[in-house]
Amino acid sequence: EMETKHTPGPWAARRVSRQEWHIDAPNGDPLLRHWAWQGLAAVYGNDDNKVAGSQVAKANARLIASAPAMLAALRAMVGMTINSGHVSDDMAPALNMALAVIKEATGETE
Question: What is the pTM of this model?
Answer without folding.
Answer: 0.85
